[in-house]
Amino acid sequence: MSAVNISTGPAYGYTDIDSDGARAANRHYWDNEAAAYYAEHGDFLGDVDFCWSPEGLRESDVHLLGDVAGRTVLEVGCGGAQCARWLAGQGATVIATDLSTGQLAQARALNERTGVPVPLVQADAITLPVRSGSIDIACSAFGAVPFVADSAALMSEVARVLRPGGRWVFSTTHPFVWCLPDAPDANGLVVFHSYFDRRAYTEHSEGGEPVYVEAHRTMGDRIREIVAAGLLLIDVIEPEWPEGHDQEWGQWGPLRGQFVPSTSIFVTARPH
Question: Where do the Methyltransferase type domain residues begin and end (predicted)?
Answer without folding.
Answer: 74-170
